[in-house]
């Protein structure tokens, strides 16, 4: 591995100052992606900044505006959190799938987001819960919708010196649920060939879908919302036929490639199947039967 300097700031202000250092500066929340990238020369660094010791980046709490997840909080902590499991089931699903248990203990949700891999497991569910990214840098703090955070594979809107501080997920309404599923070639510890996260809010009396959000992984240059599928569902009574139609519509938002892990057509079929299955899981979690 190439040599680099290392810093472990204990305050956000110190971290922002270090991010402005000369040369190539890399921040990491867990290092499970970055260290491998440095070892294989896919990235380089003159200075690596460890963000694990900054209190604001370890936040995991429910506020009046929703769930706050500090960018350096581990996937394991999020996966086992009672509030996450009760209100954000899809995020609990996803954080339990990021590598092995050992990796989950170190890897952070914010790191998974900033790595900006199209196959990232946590991002689709964050999108379906309409997460907001809080970014801190030399010019202060700004907020953007996570849907606007990604600009390409491995690329985000973060500017020089900026750090993802936290993610805020609005509190979901009653009679709503989310779910995440992926397909991988092996039983575990593999990159998704395709992944789908679904969120639905259903009127329990009429079974009408008040709101639907569906996001896809590994089938486009960035994580992508399946807006056509959302439109198919919203305002209609949920039925097996409607779920099937939503799965068909979700495929239209996918622009997959063919690679060693699967063909483009295979990925489209996976999107169809996984969309239907995640919607069915959401209904089970809400307690609605068809």
Describe the fold and architecture.
The chain has 11 helices and 14 strands. A hairpin with a 2-residue loop joins strand 6 and strand 7. It is 33% helix and 25% strand. The protein has 3 domains: 46 residues, Uridine Diphospho-n-acetylenolpyruvylglucosamine Reductase, domain 2; 114 residues, Uridine Diphospho-n-acetylenolpyruvylglucosamine Reductase, domain 3, CATH 3.30.465; 111 residues, Enolase-like, domain 1 (2-Layer Sandwich), CATH 3.30.390.50. With 290 residues, the chain is α+β, with helices and mostly antiparallel strands. The model has no long low-confidence stretch (mean pLDDT 94). It is globular, with a radius of gyration of 19 Å. A 5-stranded antiparallel beta sheet has the order 4-5-10-6-7. It starts with a strand and ends with a helix. Helix 9 packs antiparallel against helix 10.
**Total number of helical segments?**
11
- Count up the domains: 3
Q: Look at the helices and sheets and give the structural class.
A: alpha+beta
- Portion of residues in beta strands equals 15-25%
CA(first)-CA(last) distance: 56 Å
Query: Low-confidence segments, ≥5 residues, pLDDT <50?
Result: none
Strands across the major sheet, in which order?
4-5-10-6-7
CATH architecture assignment of the largest domain: 2-Layer Sandwich
> Helix amount, in percent?
25-40%
**CATH top level class name of the largest domain:** Alpha Beta
- Number of beta-strand segments: 14
Helix-strand sequence:
EHEHEEEHHHHHHEEEEEEEEEHHH
Give the biggest beta sheet.
Answer: 5 strands, antiparallel
Kindly identify the CATH topology of the largest domain.
Answer: Uridine Diphospho-n-acetylenolpyruvylglucosamine Reductase, domain 3
Quaternary form: single chain
Give Rg in angstroms. Answer: 19 Å
| Shape summary | globular
* Mean pLDDT across every amino acid position: 94
């Amino acid at each position: 591995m190439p040599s680099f300097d290392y810093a472990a700031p204990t305050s956000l202000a110190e971290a922002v100052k270090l991010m402005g250092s000369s040369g190539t500066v890399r921040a990491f929340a867990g290092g499970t992606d970055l260290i491998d990238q440095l070892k294989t020369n896919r990235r380089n660094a003159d200075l690596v900044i460890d963000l694990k010791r900054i209190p604001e980046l370890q936040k995991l709490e429910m506020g009046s505006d929703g769930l706050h997840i500090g960018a350096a909080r581990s996937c394991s902590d999020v996966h086992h959190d009672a509030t996450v499991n009760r209100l954000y089931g899809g995020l609990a699903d996803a954080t339990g799938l990021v590598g092995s248990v050992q990796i989950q203990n170190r890897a952070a949700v914010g790191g998974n987001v900033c790595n900006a891999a199209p196959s990232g497991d946590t991002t689709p569910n964050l999108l379906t819960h309409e997460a907001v990214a809080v970014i801190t840098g030399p010019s202060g703090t700004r907020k953007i919708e996570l849907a606007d955070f990604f600009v390409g594979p491995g690329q985000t809107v973060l500017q020089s010196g900026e750090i993802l501080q936290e993610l805020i997920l609005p509190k979901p309404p009653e009679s709503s649920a989310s779910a995440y599923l992926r397909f991988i070639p092996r039983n575990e510890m593999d990159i998704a060939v395709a992944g789908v996260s679904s969120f639905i809010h259903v009127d329990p009396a009429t079974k009408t879908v008040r709101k639907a959000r569906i996001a896809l992984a590994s089938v486009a240059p960035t994580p992508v919302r399946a807006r056509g599928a959302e439109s198919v569902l919203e305002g209609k009574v949920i039925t097996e036929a409607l779920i099937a139609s939503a799965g068909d519509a979700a495929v239209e938002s996918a622009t997959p490639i063919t690679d060693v892990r699967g063909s483009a057509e295979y990925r489209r079929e996976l999107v169809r199947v996984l969309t239907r299955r995640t919607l069915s899981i959401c209904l089970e979690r809400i307690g609605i039967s068809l």
